[in-house]
Amino acid sequence: MRIDIITIFPEMIKPMFNESIMKRAVLQNLIEINVIDLRDYSVLKHNKVDDTPYGGGAGMVLQFPPFYLALKNLRNEQTHVMLTSPRGKTFNQQRAIELQQKQHIIILCGHYEGIDERVHDMVDEEVSIGDYVLTGGELAAMVITDALARLQDGVIKKDSYEQDSFHMGLLEHPHYTKPFSYEGKEVPEVLTSGNHKEIDRWRRYQSLKQTFLKRPDLLNGFPLDKEDIKMLEEI
Ligand code: SAM
């Protein structure tokens, strides 16, 4: 997968590829990520890309021509263009799984008051990362890129992300590591028993419990089997 992020603040985004899993994913070519400066597509003096809003009002608006030219240059038939916007559909794990199949994604970052409305007509989807307003789309682009990158083959183990919260529809079970006992707090005995059937049962119960207590909405429509229903009755 290749992701192109178009922004007026590339330096905000680049550090995310200098550490940890994202750094390795890029170095090993498991994903290609390009951070593109919108100003490279400016049609005005001094690489200007914003102006005051027609009709008056506070703040600056990012102009249509630089986005038009950037998309004209970067987009091909396979490209999926995403515009970050508080009015977009809220991004979630299900959407990340669907987008995982795309060969090429372009993410557009707004800033200030937003982006000239004519850009909205050129995109495949408007995407929000939650019901709040950020100063710019850079954090949203980073969130989406991170969620997609970890699903690419070889970035993390498939077993690992398939167990993660939301992936199969439930929240994940709790984790523990050494030491076994600290300040009177101990790890559940079952996890050291070596009995994998019992460990799996405990994890399923805990996953259902976390979901029931913290995100009961996720259980609506979730395909519970007989054993799950029995476990839920125990909670
Ligand atoms: N005036 C806009 C409104 O009220 O809908 C808000 C513009 S916001 C200050 C500037 C840019 O930040 C947006 O164009 C978008 O790219 C990004 N942004 C802000 N909140 C976001 C969110 N919740 N999800 C995704 N992008 C967001």
From TrEMBL:
<dbReference type="InterPro" id="IPR002649">
    <property type="entry name" value="tRNA_m1G_MeTrfase_TrmD"/>
</dbReference>
<keyword id="KW-0949">S-adenosyl-L-methionine</keyword>
<comment type="subunit">
    <text>Homodimer.</text>
</comment>
<dbReference type="InterPro" id="IPR029026">
    <property type="entry name" value="tRNA_m1G_MTases_N"/>
</dbReference>
<dbReference type="GO" id="GO:0052906">
    <property type="term" value="F:tRNA (guanine(37)-N1)-methyltransferase activity"/>
</dbReference>
<protein>
    <recommendedName>
        <fullName>tRNA (guanine-N(1)-)-methyltransferase</fullName>
        <ecNumber>2.1.1.228</ecNumber>
    </recommendedName>
</protein>
<dbReference type="Pfam" id="PF01746">
    <property type="entry name" value="tRNA_m1G_MT"/>
</dbReference>
<dbReference type="GO" id="GO:0005829">
    <property type="term" value="C:cytosol"/>
</dbReference>
<dbReference type="GO" id="GO:0002939">
    <property type="term" value="P:tRNA N1-guanine methylation"/>
</dbReference>
<comment type="similarity">
    <text>Belongs to the RNA methyltransferase TrmD family.</text>
</comment>
<dbReference type="InterPro" id="IPR016009">
    <property type="entry name" value="tRNA_MeTrfase_TRMD/TRM10"/>
</dbReference>
<keyword id="KW-0489">Methyltransferase</keyword>
<comment type="function">
    <text>Specifically methylates guanosine-37 in various tRNAs.</text>
</comment>
<feature type="binding site">
    <location>
        <begin position="129"/>
        <end position="134"/>
    </location>
    <ligand>
        <name>S-adenosyl-L-methionine</name>
    </ligand>
</feature>
<feature type="binding site">
    <location>
        <position position="110"/>
    </location>
    <ligand>
        <name>S-adenosyl-L-methionine</name>
    </ligand>
</feature>
<dbReference type="InterPro" id="IPR029028">
    <property type="entry name" value="Alpha/beta_knot_MTases"/>
</dbReference>
<feature type="domain" description="tRNA methyltransferase TRMD/TRM10-type">
    <location>
        <begin position="1"/>
        <end position="220"/>
    </location>
</feature>
<keyword id="KW-0963">Cytoplasm</keyword>
<keyword id="KW-0808">Transferase</keyword>
<keyword id="KW-0819">tRNA processing</keyword>
<dbReference type="InterPro" id="IPR023148">
    <property type="entry name" value="tRNA_m1G_MeTrfase_C_sf"/>
</dbReference>
